[in-house]
Specification:
The structure holds 2 protein chains of 2 kinds. Chain A folds into 2 domains: 3-46 and 251-385, no CATH class; 65-231, no CATH class. Chain A has 14 helices and 12 strands. Chain A has helices spanning 3-10, 15-47, 69-75, 108-114, 122-130, 139-145, 188-194, 216-227, 239-248, 251-282, 284-292, 297-338, 350-376, 380-385; strands spanning 53-58, 66-67, 83-88, 102-106, 118-119, 134-138, 152-157, 162-174, 183-187, 202-203, 205-209, 234-238. In chain A, strands 1, 3, 4, 5, 6, 7, 8, 9, 11 and 12 form a 10-stranded mixed beta sheet that branches. In chain A, strands 2-10 form a two-stranded antiparallel ribbon. In chain A, strand 7 (152-157) and strand 8 (162-174) form a beta hairpin. In chain B, helix 4 crosses helix 5 and helix 5 runs parallel beside helix 6. The chains are: A alpha+beta, B alpha/beta. At the A-B interface, helix 1, helix 11 and helix 14 of A face helix 2 of B.
């Protein structure tokens, strides 16, 4: 027996209350974990972005195009390896506007050099390189729509109006998380051929491989400097910065979700604080007895904080035990299959799991701080006189 | 016998708001080592206050109180707590066992403050439980014991640190006559066999009869 085991046993005094408190904390932590996972899933593209790639876009905004020949110019800059380019196509399955997925036009040959984490069987790769109407789709997207290699798919364009027919030449997977498996890439030449006049020979952005990531800053500046004297200037940044700036457009929503997370934590603290304060009030006489037989205020403080730690830890672990399967096997699968463009990878991150358990303990300790202080200030005689 | 507990001109005043309430007045008292003393008196006479002072739970307003030559008034709160853990065993009217601990764990509780190994603590707890005749009930929780048995566990807890003094505040107040007699016999045994100095507050004349010295308090003074 020691102080810690007594603190654990103290939580068994009123099992019903303890269970309700632990479940309350667990539900709060589950909600917190879900929101954190939404945020993490949203940011995953930025977090896992390759460090050795630079994105170059129009200096003013994403939605303005660059001349295609800029890609060739970028390739001449020292420190730049493979270079590819892309356009946001913005199409959808006919009559299914709500089923969003990213579809992009690119140069197959250079695309696979720059995005070397894409894993594509050799025969499928060869087909795509030779097929003007060819497309490759991520494994998650293919599973979602039941697409197989050899299928013909029609997309309805919005930025590039019309009905566009594609051949599914390959289904890719990814060896790293820096590219999602829910996108649709097709041959830029096909798009350019049928694009309206102003959109011809125009690209959305350039993606360059920088073999030495430590040179990324210098190379970015060199690219932008190259185009400074021209009519259309560029803005180059790491892939991570580009993804983050894209997410910046969602900042209000992300901030709102973070505020909701904080409110949930506050509610959790109030639940815990109330339980601990009730326990302390009911045990005033007992604390008086402990003080009488020689226990010091610091020991009583340790009892209260120890009990709070047990409750917080139990609630946090229960929240995790419920949350991980619920999110990874339930909500996560649903999100990945139905909102793949926004949430290509919707799983509880290890970091979020650890944060939720640590927070449940830290917040429990904060909630117990006032009752612990009050216990440490107890007058022995008054405490012994207190009944019940 | 030499005086173990010595009170000189002890006064204790409480305040109810700004109004002073003098509970003990210029009390001079010597309690010899190995004595079994009973303190009697009407409610409000100051006997519990006197017990608290002797046990080092409270500090005097005036005068000095010393135990084994140690002036309790000169000690800080923390020093008095440490002194209590080594020198005083407590027996309360309502037993005051921790309900979540077994009888053996309740007895072991004061030993957590001593530099002892877990094995030593367990051995001493078992010895104390044996002294009160409850070695077979060590694994029972308080709610599985009768009132008399709970008070015997409380006595085991009071003696487990081998204190010089045992203070008992109405130790038979919540017990039936049979159980009360068993507890009083146990206290007598602790006094005679283990040479513990016992100071007991009681309203019960039958309990007081077991003491070697009976003192009466009224309005804060010995009568």
């Amino acid at each position: 027996m020691n102080l810690a085991s007594i603190a654990i046993k103290n939580t068994r005094r009123n099992i019903f209350r303890t269970v309700l408190t632990v479940v309350g904390v667990a539900v709060a932590m589950l909600a917190f974990l879900l929101l954190r996972t939404v945020l993490s899933a949203w940011l995953v593209g930025a977090e896992y972005a390759a460090k050795d790639r630079i994105a170059t876009r129009h200096k003013v905004t994403f939605v303005m195009w660059l001349p295609k020949h800029y890609a060739e110019d970028v390739k001449q800059i020292p420190g730049v390896g493979a270079v590819t380019y892309m356009n946001w196509f913005g199409a959808h399955l006919p009559g299914k506007e709500s089923q969003f997925f990213a579809n992009l036009a690119t140069d197959p040959k250079t695309f696979l050099d720059v995005y070397d984490e894409i894993s594509l069987p050799a025969d499928q790769k060869q087909n795509w390189l030779e097929d003007r109407r060819g497309a490759i789709v991520g494994a998650v997207l293919a599973r979602q729509f039941g697409w197989k290699v050899g299928d013909k798919v029609t997309l309805e364009g919005s930025i590039y109006p019309g009905m566009w027919e594609f051949n599914i030449d390959g289904i890719y997977s990814a060896t790293r998380k820096s590219i999602d498996q829910s996108s649709f890439y097709f041959n830029w030449e096909y798009m350019n051929e049928l694009a309206p006049g102003p959109a011809k020979e125009k690209i959305g952005w350039i993606s360059s491989k920088v073999p030495n990531p430590s040179e990324a800053g210098r190379v970015s500046k060199a690219i932008d400097k190259l185009f400074d004297p021209r009519d259309i200037q560029t803005l180059s940044m790491s892939e991570r910065a580009m993804n983050t700036s894209f997410l910046g457009m969602m900042s209000t929503l992300l901030t709102a979700m973070q505020i909701v997370s904080l409110v949930i934590l506050l509610i959790m603290m109030l639940i815990l604080g109330n339980t601990i304060a009730m326990g302390v009030r009911e045990r005033t006489h007992e604390y008086g007895v402990l003080r009488a037989i020689g226990f010091l205020p610091k020991h009583l403080t340790a009892f209260v904080l120890g009990e709070a730690t047990v409750l917080g830890l139990a609630g946090g672990l229960l929240g995790l035990a419920l949350g991980v399967p619920l999110i990874n096997q339930g909500v996560g699968r649903f999100m990945e299959e139905n909102f793949t463009g926004f949430f290509p990878y919707f799983r509880v991150a290890d970091k979020d799991a650890i944060i939720s358990v640590v927070l449940s303990i830290v917040l429990a300790l904060i909630a117990a701080a006032v009752p612990a202080y009050q216990v440490s200030r107890l007058n022995v005689i008054n405490a012994l006189r207190k009944v019940g | 016998m030499s005086a173990l507990i010595k009170l000189e001109k002890v006064g204790k005043t409480y305040f109810r708001g700004k109004e002073p309430i003098e509970v003990l007045k210029d009390l001079d008292l010597e309690m010899p080592e190995g004595a079994f003393e009973a303190l009697m008196g009407p409610s409000g006479s100051g006997k519990s206050t006197l017990l608290n002072l002797i046990a080092g739970l409270d500090s005097v307003t005036s005068g000095t109180i010393s135990v084994s030559g140690v002036n309790l008034g000169a000690m800080s709160e923390g020093q008095r707590a440490h002194w209590r853990s080594q020198n005083v065993g407590f027996i309360f009217q309502t037993y005051n066992l921790l309900p979540v601990l077994t009888a053996a764990e309740n007895v072991e509780l004061p030993l957590l403050l001593a530099p002892l190994s877990s094995a030593e603590r367990k051995t001493r707890s078992l010895t104390a439980l044996r002294a009160v005749g409850l070695e077979e009930r060590g694994h029972h929780r308080p709610d599985q014991l009768s009132g008399g048995q709970q008070q015997r566990v409380a006595i085991a807890r009071a003696i487990v640190t081998d204190p010089k003094i045992i203070v008992a505040d109405e130790p038979t107040g919540d017990l039936d006559r049979v159980s009360a007699n068993q507890i009083l016999e146990l206290l007598v045994k602790m006094n005679k066999e283990l040479k513990k100095t016992i100071v007991m507050v009681t309203h019960d004349p039958a309990a007081a009869e077991r003491a070697s010295i009976v003192r009466h308090l009224d309005k804060g003074q010995l009568t």
